[in-house]
């Protein structure tokens, strides 16, 4: 136990932002031997490893992950694990993160709620966000419905946007708590360099022991509207006409006076010369 | 160079105008007709045996154009009236006169301040050595205006 405690301190010092990057949601902290331990991380770029350290500091489980595995991640707790306080240790490049969890023989309340849960997911992209210019923002709403159980459950959400050729443009991950239903509004900043075309937003929920539900909504990235030359000419024409009209209105008395003087000159020429 | 304001009774107004035009008969003149149409003014002058060949009429009574050599201007267009007279003063060489047949009539269409300003413009024209200004005012009309413009004229005569 002492070893675990000292290891926790070392990992905390090493990781710094460990709690922000590695999270074992509260409902998943009690695990029975032979079950998966579920947790979430920031986006995985490159190789990442997870280890379970027993109370006496021994590595009793090990698993590797790559970029293809996102959202909720799991590692199997060996059937031989005895009840106690264990440590999940993550290594990603030079960074190490750690979180504690319990191995227990009795299924906790949370665990049974999680195991009975059954989620449906609905993604909607409002009409106003169906056509977006590169560098713009996509707004989407995600509705989660728990049809299987009542009670607060932490679920792993994974969102990613793909172009028509399947390339991932952007990705977001989060862990959210849901009772019977929840609605989320998500805003995604689209890259300014994104090419015009059809894109899809994928949402996936991972919960309980690896249950999943997914949905998607599609939208278009459209070419930025160029200022039409015709419109430019039209605007220029209107401005010029307005300028001439204003000039005419301002100069009207002078024009009238000029015409009058010309008329007087003509009369004088005719009459006196 | 002179500016003269003649105040006279209504019944003596036309004979007085005839007498002045007769006296200036050899000189080109601009006649600003505010009291009668150009036609009836010309008839009245002609019937007194005075020639009207050298008179440039500015008719402020009617806008109906009857002759090419007559200018019709509304009596509220004082700026235009001043511009027309200014052009006359500038364009006609030698001695000339400006005659206004009834100064107070302008008060029907303009504020007294604007009329006073107009009269000042006329007297300014008359400050040239070759311009004579003669303005008439019937006795019964526009005493307030007369009080305002008396000082602009070199001479004020009651006839």
Q: Would you write up a description of this structure?
A:
The complex is a heterodimer of chains A (273) and B (159). Helices cover 26% and strands 41% of the residues of chain A. Chain A has 273 residues and is α+β, with helices and mostly antiparallel strands. Chain A folds into 2 domains: 2-106, Immunoglobulin-like, CATH 2.60.40.1930; 113-221, Immunoglobulin-like. In chain A, the strands form 4 sheets. In chain A, strands 1-7-6-3-4 form a 5-stranded mixed β-sheet. A 5-stranded mixed β-sheet of chain A has the order 9-15-14-11-12. Chain A has a 3-stranded antiparallel β-sheet with strand order 8-10-13, with no helix packed on it. With 159 residues, chain B is an alpha/beta fold. The interface between A and B is medium-sized, with 13 and 17 residues.
CA(first)-CA(last) distance of chain B = 21 Å
The ordered string of helix (H) and strand (E) elements of chain A is HHEEEEEEEHEEEEEEEEH
Please give the number of β-strands of chain A. 15
Individual helix count of chain B: 6
The whole-number mean of residue pLDDT values of chain A reads 83
Strand content of chain A: 35-45%
Rounded mean pLDDT of chain B is 89
How many distinct helices of chain A? 4
- The tally of beta strands of chain B, per DSSP, is 7
The main pleated sheet of chain A reads as: 5 strands, mixed
Overall morphology of chain A: rod-shaped
* Percent of residues in beta strands of chain B: 15-25%
Characteristics of this structure?
heterodimer, A: 273 residues, alpha+beta, Immunoglobulin-like, 2 domains, 5-stranded mixed beta sheet, 26% helix, 41% strand, B: 159 residues, alpha/beta, 7-stranded parallel beta sheet, 6 helices, 7 strands, 23% strand, globular
Topology of this structure?
The complex is a heterodimer of chains A (273) and B (159).
Chain A: H1 2-15, H2 18-21, E1 30-31, E2 36-39, E3 48-53, E4 59-65, E5 73-76, E6 84-92, E7 95-103, H3 109-116, E8 119-124, E9 131-132, E10 137-146, E11 153-163, E12 168-178, E13 181-189, E14 197-207, E15 211-221, H4 229-272
Parallel strand pairs in A: 1-7, 9-15
Antiparallel strand pairs in A: 2-5, 3-4, 3-6, 6-7, 8-10, 10-13, 11-12, 11-14, 14-15
Chain B: E1 2-8, H1 10-23, E2 29-33, H2 38-47, E3 55-59, E4 71-72, H3 78-91, E5 96-100, H4 106-109, H5 112-125, E6 131-138, H6 143-149, E7 155-158
Parallel strand pairs in B: 1-6, 1-7, 2-3, 2-5, 3-4, 5-6
């Amino acid at each position: 136990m002492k070893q675990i405690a000292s290891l926790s301190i070392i990992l905390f010092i090493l990781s710094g932002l460990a709690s922000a990057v590695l999270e074992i949601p509260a409902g998943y902290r009690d695990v029975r031997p032979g079950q998966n331990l579920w947790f979430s991380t920031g986006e995985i770029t490159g190789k990442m490893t997870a280890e379970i350290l027993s109370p006496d500091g021994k590595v009793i489980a090990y698993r590797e992950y790559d970029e293809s595995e996102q959202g909720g991640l799991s590692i199997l707790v060996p059937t031989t694990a005895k009840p106690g306080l264990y440590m999940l240790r993550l290594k990603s490049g030079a960074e190490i993160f750690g979180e504690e969890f319990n191995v227990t023989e009795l299924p906790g309340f949370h665990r049974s709620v999680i195991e009975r849960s059954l989620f449906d997911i609905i993604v909607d992209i409002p009409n106003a966000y169906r056509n977006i210019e590169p560098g713009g923002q996509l707004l989407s709403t995600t509705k989660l419905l728990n049809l299987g159980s009542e009670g607060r459950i932490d679920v792993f959400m994974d969102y990613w946007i793909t172009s028509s050729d399947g390339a991932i443009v952007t990705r977001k991950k989060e862990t959210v708590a849901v009772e019977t239903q929840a609605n989320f509004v998500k805003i995604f900043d689209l890259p300014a360099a994104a090419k015009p075309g059809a894109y899809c937003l994928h949402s996936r929920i991972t919960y309980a022991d690896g249950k999943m539900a997914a949905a998607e909504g599609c939208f278009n990235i459209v070419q930025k509207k160029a200022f039409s030359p015709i419109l430019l000419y039209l605007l220029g024409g209107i401005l010029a006409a307005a300028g001439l009209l204003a000039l005419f209105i301002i100069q009207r008395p002078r024009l009238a006076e000029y015409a009058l003087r010309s008329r007087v000159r003509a009369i004088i020429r005719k009459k006196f010369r | 160079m002179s500016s003269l304001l003649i105040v006279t009774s209504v019944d003596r107004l036309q004979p007085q105008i005839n007498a002045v035009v007769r006296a200036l008969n050899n000189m080109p003149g601009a006649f600003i007709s505010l009291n009668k149409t150009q036609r009836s003014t010309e008839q009245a002058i002609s019937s007194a045996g005075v020639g009207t060949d050298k008179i440039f009429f500015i008719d402020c009574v009617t806008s109906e154009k009857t002759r090419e050599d007559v200018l019709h201007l509304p009596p509220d267009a004082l700026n235009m009236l001043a511009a027309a007279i200014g052009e006359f003063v500038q364009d006609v060489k030698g001695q000339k006169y400006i005659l206004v047949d009834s100064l107070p009539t302008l008060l029907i269409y303009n504020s007294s301040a604007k009329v006073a300003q107009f009269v000042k413009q006329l007297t300014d024209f008359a400050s040239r050595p070759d311009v004579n200004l003669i303005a008439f005012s019937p006795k019964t009309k526009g005493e307030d205006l007369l009080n305002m413009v008396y000082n602009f004229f070199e001479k004020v005569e009651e006839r």
